## 1
Amino acid sequence: MDFGYGSGVDGVFKFISNAEVMAVFFPKFGQSIVIDIRPKEDVQPLVRVVPMTRSIADRLRTIKRMRPELPRPQDIIAIPWIGYVDAMKTSGLWAKILGRIEGSGFSEATAAAEKAFDELIRMERRELAQLIMGEQYETLWTRPTS
């Protein structure tokens, strides 16, 4: 399976292997998971679900606000994920991200990542339910009545 990346998903993995700051964003329901594992003594890695931003510059500013004890990140890996959240696991993406978090040595960050993943699943399910029920969505066309 290519998960919407063709053969490029392996390229995404290479970037994650070196990234200290990354965001996976989900355009389907307007949320992102932000991971910041920059090393600093006694500073936990950041793993948080936040609303999507309009640009990478906006995301860098929000990370700086969330982590005032660290300098503004110099760069960020931003990964749009158009598939289902659960497909992050079957693609291997989630395992790569978890590996980077576990490598930080803070077990609390790994637990936070799993909690954030579960939150993304719930948000996605809520969005799908709203789509099915017609909440927050409008019909573009209707079937003609006889």
## 2
Amino acid sequence: MSSKTKIVVLHMKEVVYTAIFLFLALALGVLVFFMFGPGKSMTASSDGAGVYTPGIYRSSIELNNNTFDVEVTVDAQRIKSIQLVNLSESTSAMFPLMEPALVSLASQIYSTQSLEGIEYPSDQKYTSLMLLDAIREAVDKAAKD
């Protein structure tokens, strides 16, 4: 008679707590799967119709008989870069707020991917509005019909 009988005593409260914990862990696992699973990236990248025609678009600005361009680079879904091109040193010296205003506008446009609700300092109001109009003109050229 060498049988070793083992008796396990379970308290009902511990069983209920364990079942609740396992259910919550399973629900969390399902939630994480649906939030970060493979279907999320596929739906975002499978959108064949883009907002823009990819390319580089320019809009000209004339100040005191000096002309320079605002260059906007877009891919199918978003605005990638905004910069000033053909800006002479004399124009840059005469209008020192031009480049800082563009940097401020561009960072807001990159983060929101929209030209609406852009904020600018009061001391750069007219410079920012002029640049924003040129950016809008270039983005309109890029937009699909």
## 3
Amino acid sequence: MQVIKYSILFLILLSSSLIGKYLSRKYLYRLEELEEMNSALNIFKSKIKFTYEPIPEIFQEISENSKKNIGKIFLEAKEKMKIDNANIAWEKAVEESNTNLKKEDKNIIKNLSKLLGQTDSEGQISQIEITQNFLETQIKEAIQEKQKNEKLYSRLGTTIGLAIVIVLC
């Protein structure tokens, strides 16, 4: 009987620790997605500057070379361009995306749509650079949040698990 009791208490402690770890990972995922978006925008900027490919083709290539969530944004925007303008398609794709990005991050990325497909390549490149500057700020903020909150959630999960175990003993 004692073995079952201690096994259940151990499982409670283990599960609460894992929940804490799981919650702490969202900060890492946000940072990775911001960095991936910044990298994808670099590719986008280079393609516009040097290859003069149409935006849907560039988005297709970026979606194939990017990680899951960010690649989906570009692929979704490419698909929406069949119906809408590039700027509207981009805004919809970012807004409907299922990512770990905050609303503030999404708003910065949506700002790219202002000149997307509406101006010459220099205007689009300057808008991409502005967006990247704002993303750099968000990346720095995400690094700080990750450092502060990742340990907090991990330890909080373990502490809550220990408290539950102590109460149940």
## 4
Amino acid sequence: MEALTLLKQQIADARHEFQGVMQDVDQTMAHWQPPGVANPIDDLLIHTVLGQDRQVSRLTGKPAVFEDWAAKLNLAADWRQTPETSRNLDASIEVLMQYADAVYSAVDAYLAGLNDADLEKPVDAFGSQVSVASQISRNLVVHIYEHTGEISTIKGLQGAKGYATRT
């Protein structure tokens, strides 16, 4: 199997799990404030999707999808996740999910334009050089799974089923 094919499949699988966990999340569940310093589901959703959006923007040099969505999400154009912003989101879960779909389309368009040789190109990753493949794997696969687990746990704390594909 070629590396690009594998990455695309891994991204599709991660997205499927993420969407499955999110499928029954309503506004109340999304904004429920977990105990301690854990973030609410709506914040984890925007963080996960915005991470993908900003990563593809960095890799392509094109504006992030977020630039067209910030106002719809009731967020500042320069929004950053902080402990305060995490607990004070005022975005509709439906609009957040629509933004996610727009980002998924941008990710898919980016991936469609790549070939295996592109995956070897070096890119800056917070001061060190890594391959495009490594950046994609970290931010479009691993990062999604990390937050899918968090969201599943926070749903469980509310008495809801976490992973959609698990019993």
